[in-house]
Specification:
- Helix 2 packs antiparallel against helix 3, helix 4 packs antiparallel against helix 5 and helix 8 packs antiparallel against helix 9.
- Strands 1-2 form a two-stranded antiparallel sheet.
- It is mainly α.
- About 40% of the residues are buried.
- It has ten helices and two strands, in the order ααααααααββαα.
- About 60% of the residues lie in helices and about 0% in strands.
- The chain has two domains: about 60 residues, no CATH class; about 120 residues, Serine Threonine Protein Phosphatase 5, Tetratricopeptide repeat.
- The radius of gyration is 17 Å and the shape is globular.
């Protein structure tokens, strides 16, 4: 989990060092080598803005990501979240939707982890891609100016995006008003009106 946290905040060298050391110490641990280490490495690729490599790294995880039960210290399905983020970075809205919906369809696996609420937000970011609105999604945030591509390809996509943002806001209604992700979400939501 420390390696994953480091990868997500962009401290990639220590994240990779931990992953390498864990693999060296436990080369036969299936959960570690087929679930967590690829997820850490994919998160590093996300930070490098290399979504295709992140998606490739997470292929090995697919058979395991919905088969594990959550515990007090491990929340699943984190690989689906990272894969969804990679698809967003790659501008593949429909593929991102599938990954975030996987999380929302299995709330018992997410428990009260923020991953469940963030899946609503990221789903809201994926829908505009189907409406012909490109919100360039980098490793950390959506850019300030959406670029309109063409007439709506999916007429309900913007309504679905707004609903996903509203679900996120409902879950985070008591969050500190200075929370960066919440403020970013509010700014993005205003552009969808």
């Amino acid at each position: 989990m420390a390696a994953l946290a480091l990868a997500r905040i962009g401290d990639t060298r220590p994240a990779l060092d931990i992953a390498t050391e864990l693999h060296r110490e436990h080369p036969l641990d299936t959960l570690l080598n087929s679930y967590w280490i690829p997820t850490v490495r994919a998160a590093v690729e996300l930070h490098k803005e290399n979504p295709s490599e992140a998606i490739k790294l997470l292929q090995v995880v697919t058979p395991y990501e919905l088969s594990l039960q959550p515990t007090a210290t491990f929340i699943f399905p984190y690989p689906a979240y990272v894969r969804g983020m990679a698809y967003l970075q790659a501008g593949q809205g429909h593929e991102a939707e599938v990954e975030f919906q996987k999380i929302l369809d299995h709330p018992g696996m997410v428990l009260n982890c923020s991953l469940g609420a963030l899946a609503h937000l990221e789903l809201g970011r994926a829908y505009p891609l189907e409406a012909g609105i490109q919100l360039t999604h980098g490793a950390r945030h959506v850019t300030d100016q959406p670029r309109f591509l063409q007439a709506s390809q999916e007429p309900n996509a913007l309504a679905k995006a707004r609903a996903s943002y509203e679900d996120f806001f409902a879950l985070w209604k008591n969050a500190d008003s200075g929370t960066p992700v919440l403020n970013q979400a509010k700014a993005e939501y205003a552009k969808l009106k």
